[in-house]
Design brief:
Layout lengths: L6 H7 L2 H20 L5 H10 L8 H11 L5 H4 L5 H12 L6 H8 L10 H12 L8 H10 L1 H18 L6 H13 L2
Helix pairs in contact: 2-3, 2-8, 3-7, 4-6, 6-7, 7-8, 8-10, 9-10, 10-11
The structure holds 2'-deoxyguanosine-5'-diphosphate and fe (iii) ion (2 copies).
C-alpha cells in the first residue's frame, strides 16, 4: 500500500491544517501500531493518512455523499454534523479510492465515536487522533502518558474525556461512544 499516491488528493481535499494533521496522525498511528505489536504498521499509517479525507467537505457535500453512498443518518447523527465525516470518509475511501480492506475502512468509520468491540486498528486510529504531534489541548500530556502504558487505559480516558466534554457542551453523545466506554470501563479494574 503505497501512501504517496494519495498525497495530491489529500492536499486537494484538505486545508493546510487538516493536511498536516493527517500526516501527524499517520505517523502516530504507525508508532502506536509498533508499540502495541500490531502486525501491519504501514496499514495503520495509511488509515491515519486518510481518516479525515472528507472532513473539509461542506455540510451539503457531506449530505450529498450520504445520499450517493446510501448512508442513512439517524436523528442523533443528522443533528451532529461533526460525526458525518467518519461515515462519508469510510465510504469515500471504498468507493472513490477502491480500497476494500475492511479493517482499514472500519478504523476510519469509527474513528470519531469508537464502538464496542473495536479492532486493534480501530483502537490505534482512535487514539492516534488524540495524541498526534499536532494536538494541543489541556489533557494531551496525560493522554500521551496513557497511550504509552497501553490501549485500554488510554481508551477509557479518551472516551470518558469525550463524553464529559460533549455533556459539558450540552451535545448529544452517540450510543457507539457510550458502548465503547462502557465495555472498557466494565472490563478494567
Ligand atoms: O476529525 P478530528 O477533529 O480530527 O477528530 P474527530 O473525528 O474525533 O472529531 C471530533 C469532533 O467530533 C469533536 O468536535 C467532538 C465530535 N464528537 C465526537 N464524538 C461525538 C461527537 N459529537 C457528538 N455530538 N456526539 C458524539 O458522540
Ligand atoms: Fe475526524
Ligand atoms: Fe482527525
Amino acid at each position: 500500500m503505497a501512501f504517496e499516491q494519495y498525497l495530491p488528493l489529500l492536499h486537494e481535499r484538505l486545508d493546510d491544517y487538516r493536511y498536516r494533521h493527517s500526516l501527524a496522525v499517520a505517523e502516530e498511528a504507525e508508532r502506536l501500531a509498533k508499540r502495541y505489536g500490531y502486525p501491519d504498521p504501514a496499514k495503520a499509517y495509511l488509515a491515519g493518512l486518510l481518516h479525515d479525507i472528507t472532513k473539509n467537505a461542506s455540510a451539503s457535500e457531506q449530505l450529498q455523499m450520504c445520499q450517493r453512498f446510501g448512508i442513512i443518518l439517524n436523528d442523533l447523527e443528522r443533528g451532529a454534523p461533526k460525526l458525518w465525516h467518519a461515515m462519508t470518509g469510510a465510504d469515500y475511501i471504498r468507493r472513490e479510492l477502491g480500497i476494500e480492506d475492511e479493517e482499514l475502512l472500519g478504523a476510519v468509520r469509527y474513528h470519531t465515536t469508537g464502538r464496542a468491540g473495536m479492532s486493534r486498528l480501530e483502537q490505534i486510529l482512535y487514539l492516534a487522533d488524540f495524541t498526534s504531534a499536532d494536538r494541543d489541548y489541556p489533557d494531551v500530556a496525560e493522554m500521551r502518558r496513557l497511550v504509552d502504558i497501553g490501549p485500554m487505559p488510554a481508551l477509557r480516558y479518551a472516551l470518558g474525556f469525550t463524553i464529559c466534554d460533549l455533556v459539558g457542551k450540552h451535545l448529544p453523545v452517540h450510543p457507539d461512544t457510550f458502548e465503547a466506554y462502557n465495555e472498557i470501563a466494565a472490563a478494567m479494574p
